[in-house]
Amino acid sequence: MTGSGDNVELGGQLGEQQRREARLNVTISRVLAVGLAAAMFLLVVGVILTLGRQGTVIPRKTSIQGMPGALRAFEPGGFFELGLLVLLATPAARVVALCAAYLRRRQWLFSGISLFVLAILILSGYLGLAA
């Protein structure tokens, strides 16, 4: 038979674990919200620049290497491409945040799974850029 002190200690441990899970959920939500907000901002800037330059032809594609020059020149295509790139990178940022949280908690199985997913994301991005 267990004493009431054991139940209080177990409840305290569960409460702390629930608070850590809630903090992790808030952190992940913030990562996703910041990524989405940054992508939307960049896309809206691209739209505003496009509307401000009536009759200007927007290149269909900006290379990764040409993106800094396009952004410095305030070319709408550069903002569109960077906005889409940020939008695509947001889920990868979520995986990085989860992996860091799992490593801090020493949850090795979930850390390994997160690293595996991150490796697949990096490989697919590399192969997509190489194609």
Descriptive terms for the model:
131 residues, mainly alpha, 4 helices
How many H/I helices? 4
* Percent of sequence in beta strands: under 5%
Count of beta strands? 0
Q: How much helix, percentage-wise, in residues?
A: over 70%
The helix-strand sequence is HHHH
Q: In angstroms, what is the radius of gyration?
A: 22 Å
Describe this structure as you would to a colleague.
- The chain has helices at 4-52, 67-72, 76-104, 108-130.
- The protein is mainly alpha-helical.
- The chain has one domain (4-130).
- The longest helix has 49 residues, at 4-52.
- It is elongated.
- The mean pLDDT is 83.
Summarize the structure.
The chain is mainly α and 131 residues long.
Write the layout of secondary structure elements.
Layout: H1 4-52, H2 67-72, H3 76-104, H4 108-130
